Fold this sequence. Notes:
The protein folds into 2 domains: 8-220, 2-Layer Sandwich (BirA Bifunctional Protein, domain 2), CATH 3.30.930.10; 228-276, SH3 type barrels. The chain is 25% helix and 33% strand. The protein has 7 helices and 15 strands. It has helices at 8-12, 26-35, 79-82, 85-100, 187-205, 211-220, 271-276, and strands at residues 16-23, 42-53, 59-62, 67-73, 116-117, 120-121, 124-127, 131-134, 137-148, 154-162, 228-233, 236-245, 251-254, 260-263, 267-270. A hairpin with a 3-residue loop joins strand 7 (124-127) and strand 8. The protein is globular, with a radius of gyration of 18 Å.
Amino acid sequence: MAGFLLGANARSAGYRLVGFDNIGSTNSEALAAAAAGDPGGIWFAALQQTAGRGRRGRPWASPHGNLAASLLIVPDAETAATATLGFVAGVALSRALGSILPGRLVRMGIDGADGTVNGHNARIALKWPNDVLADGAKLAGILLEAQKLSDGRHAIGVGFGVNVVRSPKDVPYPATSLAELGIDRSAFDVFEALSEAWVEVFGLWRDGRGVADVLAHWRSAAAGIGAPVAVSHDGRVVRGIFETIDDDGRLVVRAEDGLRIAITAGDVHFGATASARS
């Protein structure tokens, strides 16, 4: 579709692009391409997604004008390392959005969850495991899906959803969009910035050998480190202080009894919300 463009560095790196006005799911399109033999390095981007998926199979539809984009990659990396591509995606998306939002510093977010830059509160922050916040509200999300290939490698669909023109209103968490933040930029602008940022951060990852470097960048933009946190998963709630993300990408919580608990998956709530929710 005319309108979507790769950044100059993405084009030079050999990435390809297919654009749509609307589509069921960009991740489904990416994985279908893998099944048909595509070697990877191709983006699928759309202005509207009608049958998208979020974490744990939750539906993720988006109105026309928001960005849905998925990148198909087939990395030469161990299976365990491919799971850390979510952190590559988070850092890349936060950098892309940070380049679009004005650089001024703002108040603490409504959830006490803003990240920091040089010791000051920042507009864009990463929320473990796969969200990007603006002023403490969800602006974007990421979903990784894998498909094993006949040669034993895994094709990965790295999906991005960004609220450009409108945010969802029927969700149990604060959400926002670029338009609601007063930012007059299009999904085309966001995608081009994302395609450029991906090249840079994926280069740091180096087929899994640079995971530590990527995680260091992720921590530097993380929301809520040092703050009260509650993580719910499979009916269990873990409460304490969000200490860090460990070298395997797990969220580490220091409980009231001093025990350090490493969590691999869950829904995260910060600050006062962490204390109020069960």
